[in-house]
Amino acid sequence: MNQELATAETARLKQCEKAIEKGLGTFVEVGQALLDIRDGKLYRASHKTFEAYCKERWDISRPRAYQLIEGAKTVQTIADVAGADLSTTVDKITERQSRELASDPIGAAQQIKARVEKGEEPAKATAEVIAERRADRQLRGKKPDPEVEALHAEARDSLPEAVKDQIATRDAAVAARKAAPTADEDLQDEIDELKNALGSKDSRIAELEAKLADLEPMRLEYKRGGFAEVIKGLAEQIRVLKTRVETESQEKVKNLRAMDFWKKEAIKLGYSRDEVIDLGAING
Question: Per-residue pLDDT tens for 233-246?
Answer without folding.
Answer: 778 878 887 888 88
